[in-house]
């Protein structure tokens, strides 16, 4: 899959931009706060219908403006496709593919896959378990529609049960119906998360070793609670406790991914370099797994990936990015042109191979390279 062009109006600090991309490597150079990451956020938004920052749609509209539009042209499975988004405060986002609106926004997820590596990925290792569950959910949902639907139904039932708990309701029939929904969907969620974690680890470990430049073992595993009696029966027996807590304390929404280097937890013992190496390898593994499951090469977005890495790790990442056949179209941001020049140094100069832009205050100027 290739993103041929992107046109933006009033998206974050980008007033107006129209860019045509190389099918291989696209580089964006500029100081922090100029709009490089905002462009990657637009690409992410086009694929997943949300900002990678977690900002609401209203906050994506440029300050002082009443709307934002995004229009992208893709080459997907040999077919030209157009996707458009429209944003207005207080209104549901408009999403069209080939000029036709989706019946359900969920139909768009996974059609134009994307993988983002950014400084915020440090939260994957050091943040709350919800960050790691979200990481897993995003991988699976882009290639498994049944999983996405199960996740939506599970979360809806969970929200309703938590509302009953907060209201201290004793409606046994309603609790039972919701707990059966949680069990039916929760079983599939847990099974797919376990399976995906095992697949991901096999791909991840060689990437980690290649970037780290040593043989320290790095692992990931899915941590869940077993419910021999079934989740519904467990929740029924836990109603009194959960009513006191005002929330549901058991289920896959409490599970976690465990990351370790040399047998020790990453979040407690890893250096910044080890942590950045871990998250970079994790995103590369995510890319390869999605590519295999979807039969498409996702867009790879690399936002300021060289920060907090020593020269050796930077060099090894650049070698992987520039030479691996695994990756398709790549978008890279950096404040240091030397990094970008080194990535493309061995690639014949042409618009078909790479393009580079300077970014300043939301404006993009192409650089001759």
* Distance, first to last CA: 25 Å
Overall average pLDDT: 90
Stretches where pLDDT falls below 50 for ≥5 residues?
none
Percentage beta strand:
15-25%
Write down the secondary-structure element order: EEEHEEEEEHHHHEHHEEHHEHEHEE
User: What structural class do you assign from the helix and strand content?
Assistant: alpha/beta
Question: Major sheet: size, sense and barrel closure?
Answer: 6 strands, antiparallel
C-alpha-based Rg, rounded: 22 Å
Shape: globular
Number of strands: 15
Helix content: 40-55%
- Number of helices, counting only DSSP H or I runs of 4 residues or more: 11
The neighbouring-strand order within the major sheet is: 2-1-4-5-6-7
Describe it for me?
It is a single chain. The model has no long low-confidence stretch (mean pLDDT 90). Helix 3 (129-141) packs across helix 5 (172-212) and helix 5 packs across helix 6. Helix content is 42%, strand content 23%. The strands form three sheets. It has a six-stranded antiparallel sheet with strand order 2-1-4-5-6-7. Strands 8-12-13-3-14-15 form a six-stranded mixed sheet, sandwiched between helices. With 369 residues, the protein is α/β, with parallel strands linked by helices. It has eleven helices and 15 strands.
Attribute tags:
alpha/beta; six-stranded antiparallel β-sheet; six-stranded mixed β-sheet; 11 helices; 15 strands
Walk me through the topology.
Elements: E1 2-11, E2 14-20, E3 25-29, H1 36-48, E4 68-76, E5 79-87, E6 94-97, E7 100-101, E8 114-117, H2 122-126, H3 129-141, H4 145-166, H5 172-212, E9 218-223, H6 231-237, H7 239-245, E10 256-261, E11 264-265, H8 266-269, H9 272-294, E12 299-303, H10 311-323, E13 330-334, H11 337-344, E14 354-360, E15 363-367
Parallel strand pairs: 3-13, 3-14, 8-12, 12-13
Antiparallel strand pairs: 1-2, 1-4, 4-5, 5-6, 6-7, 9-10, 10-11, 14-15
């Amino acid at each position: 899959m290739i993103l041929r062009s992107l046109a933006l109006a009033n998206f974050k600090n980008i007033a107006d931009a129209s860019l045509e991309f190389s099918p291989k490597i696209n580089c964006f150079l500029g100081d922090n706060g100029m709009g490089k990451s905002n462009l990657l956020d637009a690409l992410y938004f086009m694929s997943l219908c949300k900002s990678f920052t977690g900002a609401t749609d209203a906050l994506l509209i440029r300050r002082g403006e009443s709307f934002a539009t995004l229009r992208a042209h893709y080459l997907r499975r040999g077919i030209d496709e157009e996707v458009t988004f429209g944003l207005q405060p207080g209104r549901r986002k408009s999403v069209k593919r080939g000029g036709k609106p989706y019946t359900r926004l969920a139909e768009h997820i996974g059609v134009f896959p994307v993988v983002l590596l950014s400084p915020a990925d440090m939260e994957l290792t050091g943040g709350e378990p919800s960050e790691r569950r979200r990481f897993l959910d995003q991988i699976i949902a882009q290639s498994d529609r049944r999983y996405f639907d199960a996740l939506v139904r599970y979360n809806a039932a969970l929200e309703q049960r938590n509302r009953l708990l907060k209201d201290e309701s004793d409606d046994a029939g309603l609790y039972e119906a919701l707990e059966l929904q949680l069990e039916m969907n929760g079983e599939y969620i847990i099974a797919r998360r376990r399976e995906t974690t095992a697949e991901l680890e096999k791909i991840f470990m060689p990437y980690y070793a290649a970037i780290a430049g040593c043989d320290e073992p790095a692992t990931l595993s899915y941590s869940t609670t077993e419910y021999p009696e079934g989740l519904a029966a467990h929740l029924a027996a836990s109603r009194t406790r959960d009513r006191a807590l005002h929330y549901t304390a058991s289920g896959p929404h409490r599970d976690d991914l465990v990351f370790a280097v040399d047998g020790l937890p990453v979040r407690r013992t890893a250096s910044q370099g080890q942590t950045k190496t871990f998250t970079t390898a994790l995103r590369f593994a995510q890319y390869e797994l999605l590519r295999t499951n979807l039969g498409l090469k996702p867009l790879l977005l690399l936002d300021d990936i060289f920060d907090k890495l020593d020269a050796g790790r930077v060099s090894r990442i650049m070698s992987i990015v520039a030479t691996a056949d695994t990756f398709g179209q790549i978008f890279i941001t950096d404040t240091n042109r030397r990094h970008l020049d080194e990535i493309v140094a061995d690639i014949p100069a042409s618009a078909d191979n790479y393009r580079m832009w300077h970014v300043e205050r939301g404006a993009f100027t192409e650089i001759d390279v």
